[in-house]
Amino acid sequence: MTANSDFRPLQTRADFELAMETSHLRPVVLFKHSNRCMTSALAYRRMEAGRRPDDPPVFLLVVQQTQALAREIADSLKVRHESPQIIVLREGSVLFHTSHASVSPEAVREVVAAQVR
Question: Which of 15, 31, 66, 98 is 20 to 30 A from 37 (CA-CA)?
Fold first, then answer.
């Protein structure tokens, strides 16, 4: 599986801070992905294949590479860590989160569209 150029790396505290700052301008997605899990591989493919140019930016965290950061994000946002998992942020707060088979760009679009109404 190759890195998608549309996915921004989420590997450091600075990357997380950038995602939080960006969420004050537009919604962003934190995508926690395990490179050892078939469910996560399927979620990755759904997120990659279903992306549209106007979708919120996706910050990709590979949990095997950044376990401490994954825990820090879970604690900071008060969202139980799961993988695969998406967390949609808006204005520095959790707008939506889901995991496993529910991870999809359509889920992100639906929640973002509901906020615009």
Answer: 15
> Does 1 reside within a domain?
no
CATH code for the domain of 31: 3.40.30.10
Provide the whole-model pTM: 0.93
Q: Using alpha carbons, select from 37, 52, 18 the residue that is nearest to residue 101.
A: 37
Closest-CA residue to 98 (of 88, 80, 86) = 86
Enclosing domain of residue 75: 7-116
Q: What is the pLDDT of residues 42-78, one digit of tens each?
A: 999 999 999 999 999 999 999 999 999 999 999 999 9
Q: Report if residue 85 sits inside a domain.
A: yes
The CA distance from 29 to 52, in Å, is 14
Go through the chain and tell me how many residues it has: 117
Tokens for 39, please give them. Answer: 């469910």
Number of domains forming the structure of the chain: 1
- Could you please report the per-residue DSSP string of 20-73? HHHTTTS-EEEEEE-TT-HHHHHHHHHHHHT--TTSPPEEEEETTT-HHHHHHH
